[in-house]
Write a structure and sequence with these properties.
The protein is an alpha/beta fold. Helix content is 27%, strand content 28%. The strands form two sheets. A six-stranded antiparallel beta sheet has the order 4-3-6-1-2-5. Strands 9-8-7-10-11 form a five-stranded parallel beta sheet, with helices on both faces. Helix 3 links the parallel strand 7 and strand 8. It is globular, with a radius of gyration of 19 Å.
């Protein structure tokens, strides 16, 4: 009986989430056909894709910044998740992807998907979002994890963002760098390939100490990047007495 109760509770929770998604402005259930209208370079091996619904409903689409799209490309059975990098309330949805050496979907999107082509897209999903209120926040990312931070940058009052930290291989691979540079925020960028500007293998302990000195241990810390990077940053923050409940990481399912 206990197992049956838990299963029903999970199903009810799932039903509520689907209803909430559908009832949002521009929302839908299941997969919906979207058409690619823009495709352009954002950084080395990184492209932006902008989609519009391929039906008569042209409503503005609401979602929570930090959520992702689930995209199924033609002829590929397995979908992939990509953070939404457009602002909520637009009639289009944008995602920004990096070409992965073994990524079937990213390779298709980068090399085959063309303007006018269609994909199946599930509604915006995910719980990695900034809390409401006026808490100070710090944005920490590595690699293509910067997409989440770009989504936050475009939607959160800048007065809340006390520091931005990003690690990438080279400046050429750093997506949204110009947007962060022009934001007026306190930004620190590290590039890990030798012979590149700002080349440095960051000492994460010292990085965390610097971030806490700027924002305080009661700030909220948002982290997105490779699993090992997120795990290490979380560990360093907790070692410096940041409450684990104030550390948020993005994990795609």
């Amino acid at each position: 009986e206990a197992i049956v109760f838990l299963i029903k509770a999970c199903m009810d929770a799932g039903d509520r989430r689907y209803t909430q998604v559908e009832n949002r402005k521009g929302g839908w259930q299941g997969e919906r056909e979207f058409r690619l209208i823009k495709k352009y370079a954002k950084a080395e091996d990184t492209l932006c894709f902008e989609f519009v619904p391929n039906d008569s409903d042209k409503s503005k689409i609401e979602f929570t910044p930090g959520q992702y799209l689930t995209i199924r490309c033609p002829g590929i059975s397995s979908p992939r998740h990509y953070t939404i990098t457009s602002a909520p309330g637009s009639k289009t949805l944008q995602c920004t992807t990096r070409l992965m050496p073994k990524g079937i979907v990213s390779k298709y999107m980068h090399t085959t998907l063309d303007i006018g082509d269609c994909c199946l897209v599930a509604p915006p999903s995910g719980s990695f979002s900034v809390t409401r209120g006026n808490s100070k926040i710090v944005l920490i990312s590595a690699g293509i994890g910067v997409t989440c931070m770009a989504a936050f940058l475009r939607s959160i009052p800048k007065r809340r963002i006390k520091s931005v930290y990003h690690v990438d291989k080279t400046p050429q691979r750093h997506a949204f760098a110009e947007e962060f540079d022009e934001s007026g925020l306190d930004c620190t960028f590290y590039y890990t390939y030798p012979d590149t500007p700002n080349y440095l293998r960051p000492n994460l302990r010292k990085v965390v100490e610097s971030l806490i000195a700027k924002a305080g241990s009661k700030a909220e810390y948002y982290i997105c990047g490779p699993e090992d990077f997120m795990k290490s940053m979380r560990q360093r923050l907790e070692e410096q007495h940041v409450n684990p409940k104030r550390v948020f990481t993005q994990h795609y399912q």
